[in-house]
Amino acid sequence: MQSATLPSMALMPPDRHALSHIPGDEGWPLIGRTLSVLADPKGEVERMSAKYGHIYRTRILGETSITMLGPEANELLLFDQVRLFSSSYGWGTILGRLFPRGLMLLDFDEHRLHRRALSVAFKSGPMKSYLAALDAGIARRVAEWRQKPGEMLFYPAMKQLTLDLAATSFLGTAIGPEVKEITKAFVDMVAASIAPIRTPLPGTQMARGVKGRARIVAYFSEQIPIRRAKGGEDLFSQLCQATHEDGALLSPQDIVDHMSFLMMAAHDTLTSSLTSFVAALAANQEWQQKLRDEVLGIGVAPDAPTSSDHLEAMPLAEMAFKEAMRLRPPVPSIPRRATRDFKFGGYEIPAGTLVGLNPLFTHHMPEIWPDPDAFDPLRFTDEAQRNRHRFAFVPFGGGAHMCLGLHFAYMQAKCFARHFLQNLSVSLAAGTTPNWQMWPIPKPRDGLRVTVMPV
Fold this sequence. Notes:
Elements: H1 34-39, H2 41-52, E1 55-60, E2 63-68, H3 71-79, E3 85-86, H4 88-95, H5 108-119, H6 124-147, E4 150-153, H7 154-171, H8 179-193, H9 205-230, H10 235-241, H11 252-283, H12 285-298, H13 308-312, H14 315-327, E5 334-338, E6 342-344, E7 347-349, E8 354-357, H15 359-362, H16 382-385, H17 406-423, E9 424-428, E10 436-437, E11 443-444, E12 449-454
Parallel strand pairs: 2-8
Antiparallel strand pairs: 1-2, 3-5, 4-12, 5-8, 6-7, 9-12, 10-11
């Protein structure tokens, strides 16, 4: 077997003609099929797979790549026991300039060492501290919404809430007067990650993203010595004290890179997933009432704090959150780059090839998910999941790169469900049909106009 480590030299894309034996369509010169993906990522992959099969050639963001679809492809790329695929060289084209050396952009032994160091921030003690902070922040915001019943744009309201919650649980304090500036920096960075123009030319989205990155780096850098001196239970303070296996503290640059990435991931993916969750409840009143009955059945007073035991008593809420992420996975596509030649589905694929898997497609395969566009949380009962391929549901990725914060996400989702359903009912505003932008992270184009009323 060849060495199962990342080559010391940069992984270079193969000559595009080396992939010509794989069926597909690379689209227009230069831009390829990028505009088709941006316009309708779900429709694009469904049309391409219907025409060319579950392995096809395409061209996105300036590079010819291979898309591999279905649970078996997900398992190959994500589980990756023999270290065949690089996450760093996969995500690098998209995130490398703006979120360099975040955990998702590290590979193999280096990734393992950093993941171990970061895992201290997600152990039982800190998680209890996060829950207390999340619970108080969600309760305050839901109380504000309850005082202003009627129509609201839910997505921007949720985006502000998740940023505030990330600031509270990750930083231990509200960002305060800098909130608008920090929010804009994160928004610009995420938007720039999929901008067709990849160079920060004046006036481009990439230039705004690079400026946002500089602002975020400055903010975290100035805080590190303060947190190392003070300590604290928040995630940032935990990382400032975290050590590698040899006892050495994480470097300031490592902390900056990890915090930038974690804040982006926790803020944007949770905003997307919780908005999808509320949209599903607004469109499915019967399920909304079932989840409300579950919350009321816990018997916790409206002004009482949420405990871990309360969250454990909300299995339906967790199933409904999973179903919302099945319908709109927060990361609809995941790139990897082959570290060496491999074979799959009868095709030889050379080292250096950019390979993409697609949770959005897998989550809507009718042979796995009957009536795939319907909202049905009972797909996630123990019995329903028993014979399903373990890589048929991958909203948090899988394998060594499984999202480190997935338990944080479920904790926040169920805490939010408890307060929201105990206090408010939600319905789609009259005459509205949500229209979703699905890539790079799903969000409603109209902001999701809903009507909220006190229960």
